[in-house]
Amino acid sequence: MPPTYASLPGPPPRRRLRTLLGAAAGVLLLGLIPAVRHEAEAMAGEGGPDGPRLTVATWNMCGETVWGCGKYGGGDQKIKVMRSMAQDHGARAILVQEACRGDLDRARAGLGAAWQLAFQPYEQADEAGATTPVDCGGGRGDAGIGILAAAPLTDIAPVSAPQPEKGLRRGILCATAGSGPRLCVAHLSLPPADRSDRAAELRDDQLSALLKAAGTGGSVFGGDFNSSPPGPNNKDAWIWPAGYFDTVQECAQQSPDQRTGFAPTHENGFKLDYLFTALPRHGCSRLDTSFSDHQAELITVAAAL
């Protein structure tokens, strides 16, 4: 859902109150996804040697009726978008955020045995620290993040990273797809709405944990970072650890020194969605699906499942 950036605080002190959490274990589903065409905006990508190519997508689906996502369509429309990514745009792996478990279960009826999904639910923490899953509403099950791939998913692992003491705990989840790359999906915290210590910042440590878990070799990772790129006009630029846009490059990054000028992926005009890799890049595109407040981003890399 649309974040409110006007209320973001300036750079906080480096000593921050944190809660280190082990995320809930991933749940494996099986599936294949089939097709509705949407317009894609191609952007410059980096070429690579001849050989296998793999397209990976990330999409914040905005599936939760309880969070006001009903105006962006229901589960049927969102499933069709994922079918389009797979069949029309060649995605063989899809990283999702704000996805409803019930929608994914319903999609299984049409899924092929080659596709698998790892799913991790969000948690809502109360004042006492007790947690409950986030219900999408409308009988569509829990909300969470997931990794869908056209290959067996192994070494499925939630990533421990600082999360709010109270409020919404999103998470990071990694898995290896077949004999191919390590895939990680992340949905970072949105300050200050979901943290108990308003002087605390969580995204920097979440970004560090994500980069460490994914590694800088054969991996593709990303998701909804709830953060703008680290340009000079971004007062929160300091949250980005060394290595981002350098050791690993972003899908739409056109030069080694680019840190600004990225096209927005959110309807409010911000780039919030990212895909990073150290693999050779062959292309990058965005899809305006009409069924979320976020566009999808797709990267093609030199890899195979």
Task: Explain the overall architecture.
The structure is a single chain. Helix 1 crosses helix 2 (101-107). The chain has an 8-stranded mixed β-sheet with strand order 2-6-9-5-4-19-18-3. Strands 10-13-14-15-17-16 form a 6-stranded mixed β-sheet, with helices on one face. The protein is built from 3 helices and 19 strands. It has one domain: Endonuclease/exonuclease/phosphatase (Deoxyribonuclease I, Chain A), CATH 3.60.10.10. It is mostly beta strands and 305 residues long. Mean pLDDT is 83; it is low at 1-48. The chain is globular and about 55 Å long. It has helices at residues 75-87, 101-107, 203-214, and strands at 19-21, 27-30, 40-43, 54-60, 91-100, 116-121, 123-125, 131-133, 143-149, 153-158, 161-163, 167-169, 171-177, 182-187, 219-224, 249-250, 273-277, 281-287, 296-301. The relative contact order is 0.23.
Overall tally of structural domains:
1
Low-confidence stretches: 1-48
CATH superfamily: Endonuclease/exonuclease/phosphatase
Structural class: mainly beta
Mean pLDDT over the residues = 83
Net shape:
globular
Rg on CA atoms, Å: 18 Å
Number of strands: 19
Side by side, the strands of the main sheet go 2-6-9-5-4-19-18-3
Strand content: 25-35%
| CATH architecture descriptor text | 4-Layer Sandwich
Give the class-level CATH name: Alpha Beta
The largest sheet, given as strand count, sense and whether it forms a barrel, is:
8 strands, mixed
